[in-house]
Design goal:
The longest helix has 28 residues, at about 30-60. The model has no long low-confidence stretch (mean pLDDT about 90). Helix 1 packs antiparallel against helix 2 (about 30-60) and helix 2 packs antiparallel against helix 3. Helices cover about 90% and strands about 0% of the residues. It is mainly α. It has 3 helices and no strands. The protein has helices at about 1-30, 30-60, 60-84. It has one domain (about 1-84).
C-alpha cells in the first residue's frame, strides 16, 4: 500500500503543479488556456479516486472498490447536473 500511496501522491502533485502552471500561462495568453488549467485542477482529485478504485479492484477489496465506484458516479452525476 505504501507504493500505491506514493504513486497517488505523485499524481496529485503533478496534477496540481501542471494545472497551476497552465492556468498561470493562460493569464498571459488566452482564456481557453486558463480554462484548460482549471480543468486539469478539477480532474486531479478525480484521477486519485480512479487510481484508488483500480488499486482496490486489484486487491479484490470489493467493499472499498464499490465505495470508489460510488464516489466516481457521484462526481460524474454532479458534473452532469451542473451543466444543465
Amino acid at each position: 500500500m505504501v507504493m500505491v500511496e506514493s504513486l497517488i501522491s505523485w499524481v496529485l502533485r503533478i496534477g496540481v503543479f501542471s494545472g497551476a502552471t497552465i492556468t498561470l500561462i493562460g493569464f498571459f495568453t488566452t482564456p481557453e488556456i486558463t480554462w484548460l488549467g482549471v480543468l486539469v485542477l478539477i480532474l486531479t482529485p478525480f484521477m486519485r479516486v480512479v487510481m484508488t478504485g483500480i488499486y482496490f479492484l486489484s486487491r479484490r477489496d470489493w467493499a472499498y472498490f464499490s465505495l470508489a465506484i460510488y464516489v466516481i458516479m457521484m462526481l460524474v452525476i454532479g458534473s452532469l447536473l451542473h451543466m444543465f
